[in-house]
Design goal:
The complex is a heterodimer of chains A (303) and B (433).
Chain A (H helix, E strand, L loop, with lengths): L2 H4 L5 H38 L1 E2 L7 E2 L3 H8 L1 H31 L7 H9 L6 H11 L7 H7 L13 H29 L3 H9 L4 H29 L3 H6 L11 H10 L4 H27 L4
Chain B lengths: L9 H25 L11 E7 L3 H13 L4 E7 L4 H10 L6 E5 L3 H6 L7 H5 L9 H6 L1 E2 L2 E2 L2 E13 H6 L11 H12 L15 H14 L17 H15 L15 H6 L5 E5 L14 E4 L12 E8 L6 H11 L2 H8 L21 H9 L11 H6 L4 H11 L3 H18 L2
Parallel strand pairs in B: 1-2, 1-3
Antiparallel strand pairs in B: 3-9, 4-5, 6-7, 6-8, 6-9
Helix pairs in contact in B: 8-10, 9-10, 10-16, 16-17
The chains are: A mainly alpha (303), B alpha+beta (433).
Organism (chain B): Streptomonospora halophila
Keywords (chain B): Signal
Protein name (chain B): Sugar ABC transporter substrate-binding protein
């Protein structure tokens, strides 16, 4: 948008002042909400992370001690690596699967509406409820999954879904893919439908095949939407909690403890609020930095 | 007030309710004026009490009886077991602790250390039956010379066995195992019955359940698990290795169902209730929750050591006054009332629950209850471990104990699992204080 287009009919200065005032008024409620619910707690957490903070009694300033304790905590550092691994695997699986599903239902055909709804269904189940559901599915005692797989020739009817570090991780990723693929499909679908048909027609006229069209037309034009999906997926995975809390409780042998679980343990089991706040601040800093990098890389070349 | 019963006039009813609560407030204020020291009178108060779900049944019974007396009104809030600590911590941080606070015995020291409980040493010592309270509970409610709580409900670990399966397997249902070795033999005999029946059970993913059922065997052998001040553990001791060895053997021999490896405590009770488990240690409070029938006839016995002896883990909850309550007199009125002889007999003993006093098991009201007699006989012999860092070390699934226990039972090498993890437990016990 150019200044001339915006200021039609009024002097530019007048219009700009008016616009500024309206903008301030309109954004005030949101600014208030963000301040109360985000900025203030963030500052409090920062302050808390610099103090020894008992549940009852007065806090005492300890400087960087809590940060030293946080990075010295084996469970926390282990959780950082595990969370990064989980985030990488989840994102690498979830986004392509969602994209494939979105491409499948992109054009209206027979049953498209039905398939779209079916794909989206798991996303309306709460994450905690979904985790409990899959906890039962993975239980050899009551679940039909083992015998179902046996009849198609996989396994002997009792697969140890959550018993080893590897199986616990992949079983959780499978559950998360089921739960979230439909959601990211929906996001990507909105991006796909914003791509004008003319572009596809032009590609067809130029003789581009399916693969070429996907690579040279769809993906480049989908980049802003993909960026959004990636940021949501990475952030969500880094903050993973319910799925592991309910499916594995961090086990076996603490092999599936995520960062948020480590923070939770520090705060609510060890009751050490200062160190827990320090851990939270570190996670927040990493997340912000990660998002900035991700967005700047993905937006490069967008004008 | 005459129109209160008229269902058509909501406004009148609201007004009446407002009048009633104003009157109640006036009564409370008067009671407050005439009250003794320590803030608030001994009667006419409304008290809040929190307890975890595990003791809801017993605590509610206490409160129902007490509220009938018209002295004070106690309002109970029950919190799920798994989130009790979190809720208390949040409430303490916000200055919202209740007047009366229950605590799982293994968390008692942590609660005291955090300053949640008021010092009630003089009050407890002033009770005429002070020396007859369950000793293990009094010990964990004591820090230094100060007492912060009294026994509230007792939950002992005892052997439960299904007499029906014993008979089917040709075992004598009146002769429960007297050693862990014998328990494994019985389990093997029962396992042979087939048809989905398992000889024994193990709570493979529930750290609190494992220690509750397994440590008594170590104690029965004469071994110790923690040192006196709860700052170090002896999990690599010969006794601990022998006890784990029996469970490990039962897993290797297939006497424990495969699914037990994932047991996090939530299906513990149903596995036995289906009548498919032969003999296993469980909490005494489960007894009143089981529905016995043609497939389930329960016998109880003390938990033995590997070669004999007997002991129990005296679990359950203590109760104390929160450090922030202003209704000290009234709160103590309730707490001390729960420990009186008549109350104990009617509220606990009469419902086959273990009593918080050790001098009442011969009373007429509870005579003839054989299973309760087994429980009561164990109270003086049992132990309750005492450590500030008990919760994060042992009860928390992310603590080092669960890793040790799983390694010992399911891992490649029992000795190595104990030796590798014992120092981590020590570190957690020392570092968490």
């Amino acid at each position: 948008m150019t200044p001339t287009a915006r200021s039609r009919g009024r002097s530019p200065v007048q219009a700009r002042t008016r616009e500024t005032a309206t903008g301030l008024v309109l954004s005030a409620p949101l600014a208030l909400v963000v301040t109360v619910l985000f900025a203030v707690p963030l500052v409090l957490a920062l302050w808390m992370s610099l103090n020894d903070w008992p549940l009852l009694g007065e806090p005492a300033f300890t400087g960087g001690d809590n940060y030293a304790a946080a990075v010295d905590e084996d469970l926390f550092t282990g959780a950082v690596w595990f969370t990064l691994k989980y985030t990488a695997f989840t994102t690498a699986i979830l986004i392509p699967v969602s994209l494939a599903m979105a491409l499948l239902v992109q054009r209206p055909r027979r049953l498209t509406g039905f398939v779209r709804t079916a794909f989206f269904q798991p996303a309306v189940v709460g994450l905690a409820a979904a985790s409990l559901l899959w906890y039962v599915i993975y239980s050899n005692e009551v679940s039909p999954l083992g015998s179902l797989l046996r009849t198609v020739g996989i396994g002997d009817g009792s697969i140890d879904w959550l018993g080893t570090p590897g199986s616990a991780l992949w079983s959780t990723i499978l559950m998360i893919t089921w739960r979230f693929a439909g959601f990211y499909m929906l996001i990507l679908l909105t991006g796909l439908q914003a791509i004008p048909d003319e572009v596809y027609e032009a590609a067809r006229v130029d003789g581009a095949g399916w693969w070429r069209t996907l690579r040279s037309v769809t993906l480049p034009l989908l980049r802003p939407t993909l960026a959004l999906a990636l940021v949501l997926c990475v952030t969500g995975s880094v903050l993973a909690f319910e799925q592991f809390m309910l499916l594995t409780s961090g086990g076996p042998s603490n092999s599936t403890v995520t960062v948020v679980m480590a923070v939770y343990r520090e705060a609510f089991t060890l009751l050490d609020l200062g160190v827990a706040a320090a851990m939270s601040v570190l996670v927040t800093a990493v997340l912000v930095a990660g998002n900035v990098i991700q967005l700047s890389v993905l937006r490069k070349g967008d004008d | 007030m005459v129109t209160v019963h008229d269902p058509g006039t909501g406004r009148t009813r609201r007004r009446a309710a407002a009048a009633a609560s104003a009157a109640a407030a006036a009564v409370l204020a008067l009671a407050g004026c005439g009250g003794a020291e320590g803030g608030g009178g001994a009667t006419g108060q409304t008290l809040t009490m929190w307890t975890r779900a595990a003791t809801e049944v017993q605590t509610q019974r206490f409160i129902d009886e007490y509220n009938k007396l018209g002295r004070n009104t106690v309002e109970l809030r029950v919190i799920p077991n798994d989130t009790y600590l979190q809720q208390i911590a949040t409430a303490a941080g916000g200055g919202n602790l209740p007047d009366i606070l229950g605590a799982d015995v293994v968390y008692a020291q942590q609660f005291i250390d955090q300053g949640f409980f008021a010092d009630i040493t003089d009050r407890v010592e002033g009770l005429e039956y002070a020396d007859r309270l369950a000793p293990a509970h009094v010990d964990v409610a004591t820090s230094g010379d100060a007492v912060y709580g009294v026994p509230h409900t007792l939950d002992l670990s005892v052997l439960f066995y299904n007499r029906v399966l014993y008979e089917e397997a040709g075992l004598d249902p009146d002769e429960p195992p007297e050693s862990l070795e014998e328990l494994a033999e019985h389990a093997a005999r029962i396992q042979e019955l087939g048809g989905g029946v398992s000889g024994s059970y193990f709570e493979g993913r529930c750290p609190g359940c494992i220690l509750f059922t397994l440590w008594p065997s170590v104690w029965a052998e004469g071994g110790d698990v923690l040192n006196d001040d709860g700052t170090a553990a002896r999990l690599d001791s010969a006794e601990m290795e022998e006890v784990f060895g029996v469970y490990r053997g039962m897993v290797e021999d297939g006497l424990i169902p495969e699914s037990a490896k994932q047991e996090n405590g939530s299906t513990w009770i149903s596995a036995f209730e289906d009548g498919d488990i032969g003999v296993t240690p469980m909490p005494s409070t489960f007894l009143s929750r089981f529905e016995e029938g043609p497939d389930l006839d329960i016998g109880v016995a003390p938990i033995p050591g590997v070669d004999g002896g007997e002991s129990t883990f005296v679990g359950g909850d203590i109760v104390g006054l929160s450090s922030t309550t202003e209704k000290t007199e009234a709160a103590w009125d309730f707490v001390s009332w729960t420990l009186r002889k008549d109350t104990q007999l009617s509220v606990l003993g009469g419902h086959s629950d273990v009593m918080a006093r050790v001098d009442l098991s011969d009373e007429e009201a509870v005579a003839g209850d054989e299973r309760l007699a087994v429980f009561d006989s164990l109270v003086p012999k049992g132990r309750t471990p005492k450590s500030v860092a008990f919760g994060p070390t042992f009860n928390d699934p992310q603590g080092p104990w669960l890793t040790l226990a799983r390694g010992a039972v399911y891992g490649p090498d029992l000795r190595a699992a104990l030796e590798t993890n014992d120092p981590k437990v020590d570190e957690s016990l020392g570092g968490g204080a």
